[in-house]
Automatic annotation (TrEMBL):
UniProt keyword Transmembrane helix, yes or no: yes
Subcellular location: Cytoplasm; Nucleus
Name of the protein: NR LBD domain-containing protein
N-terminal signal peptide: 1-19
């Protein structure tokens, strides 16, 4: 999880982008950082680095919107990314490789079954179908499969430290994301909106603090 949380986070962002208007949020971040840079609160080099990452997120949102992934496709991409041996310190355990291979196979079979179903629907409307339909079915599945897998290398565009600063710094402060991640996974998500925190506290800060206190 320490190695791949960032991939899962980005895929989750893309999946929920419409629900919390990610594009608008990113635009607001960029505008705010630009203003900070102009008045000297943020070094130019740092602004360029962070704004570049925001630009990459914009591009990724566009790619995902064009492909219109289903929840099943998102689930398979998360599993494939999580089990991929694409980092120097990634696991090479045989069981992990087996899960990765199975996820790849199941994703393709899922896409093929959808393509076959669409082909059958078309065939019911047109009795003049032939072997060309089968070829088209296979091609459509392979094309979709290829487009989905090509999304995964884009995860390497991003710097974990910058994403932590953009999305988590208000919640975890100076703590490392690797330290906090196990507690985030264990916490009650509904407590993020607990109203017991002070008016100056960020939503969720009180709940997260309670979790740390309980584990002292």
């Amino acid at each position: 999880m320490k190695l791949k949380w960032c991939d899962l986070f980005i895929l989750g962002l893309m999946q929920c982008s419409d629900q919390f208007c990610l594009s608008n949020m990113l635009a607001a971040m960029s505008t705010h950082l630009s203003a900070c840079s102009r008045i000297g609160q943020l070094k130019t080099e740092r602004f360029e680095e962070v704004n570049e990452q925001i630009g990459y997120l914009f591009k990724l949102v566009q790619r995902f919107e064009e492909l219109k992934l289903s929840s099943m496709e998102f689930a398979y991409l998360k599993l494939i990314s999580f089990t991929a041996n694409d980092l120097p310190s990634s696991s090479t355990d045989a069981s992990v490789r087996a899960v990765h291979a199975q996820a790849l196979q199941e994703l393709y079979e899922h896409l093929l079954s959808l393509s076959v179903a669409n082909c059958e629907d078309s065939a019911s409307e047109n009795d003049n179908t032939s072997g060309a339909a089968a070829t088209s079915t296979m091609y459509n599945a392979v094309e979709r499969y290829s487009h989905l897998l090509l999304l995964l290398p884009t995860m390497r565009w991003f710097k974990q430290a910058v994403l932590v600063e953009l999305f988590f710094s208000g919640l975890i402060g100076s703590l490392s994301i690797e330290t906090v991640m196990p507690f985030i996974l264990a916490m009650d998500v509904m407590n993020v909106f607990d109203g017991t925190a002070g008016s100056d506290s960020l939503p969720g800060a009180h709940s997260l603090a309670n979790i740390f206190c309980k584990n002292d």
